[in-house]
Amino acid sequence: MGVQTTVHLLRHGEVHNPEGVLYGRRDGFHLSDLGNQMAQRIAESVGDRDIVHMRTSPLERAQETGAPLAAVRGLTPVIDPRVIESTNDFEGLSFADGAMTIVKRPHLWRHLYNPFKPSWGEPYDEIAGRMVAAIHDARDAAAGHEAVIVSHQLPIWTTRLFLEKRSYIHHPKNRQCTLCSLTSVVFDDDRMVQVRYSEPAGDLIPAGDRSAPFSAGGAPQEDRP
């Protein structure tokens, strides 16, 4: 075996979002009280691991999720725009009414013509490309140790599908990427050998929030909550 390095993809914790907005890349969406508990749980659960490098999405919810772990490990996270949330043409809409949000707005239907791309936002290949590039940089920075990248549900799940050579086409409710979950990519030198998944804060997630919320046509959603 060569040098083994693990890069953990950490999804952020619960966000304060009482209006049910698809917030995407918008500023001003912070962790809820429960989200902060989840972030603290991550620090308690993996703070004793050999984590020597951290990078986060520029968005507040990601930086807030990584802060407790960074403090425990004595790290200064690198802000990496490559691991930001994906773009989405439905950003800013409230999905409190579920599917009716789009059904009632015919002018939005044109964004749903190609679920294989997807036509409502950033192409899956582009998401995977930028995420994988960041993973390799984190692997190099933490060679022989462990690194953490704090990102968002769709980028993390898309990356896992890419790494496991699976189809991008999926229903959001089937994403194995709960709040504050870890998708861990294991390398032997520069060769990926394994993808693992764990939920250190799984017991804190309300039962009704474990599945992903509404997605018209199978996916124009990002992180909610």
Automatic annotation (TrEMBL):
Entry's Gene Ontology cellular component terms: cytoplasm
Gene3D superfamilies associated with the record: Phosphoglycerate mutase-like
Gene Ontology MF, one: phosphatase activity
Coiled coil regions, renumbered to chain: none
Alphabetized Pfam families for the sequence: His_Phos_1
Disordered, as annotated region: 202-225
Highest taxon, organism lineage: Bacteria
CDD domains in the record: HP_PGM_like
Annotated SMART domains: PGAM
PANTHER family tied to this protein: BROAD-SPECIFICITY PHOSPHATASE YOR283W-RELATED, PHOSPHOGLYCERATE MUTASE
Name this polypeptide is given: Histidine phosphatase family protein
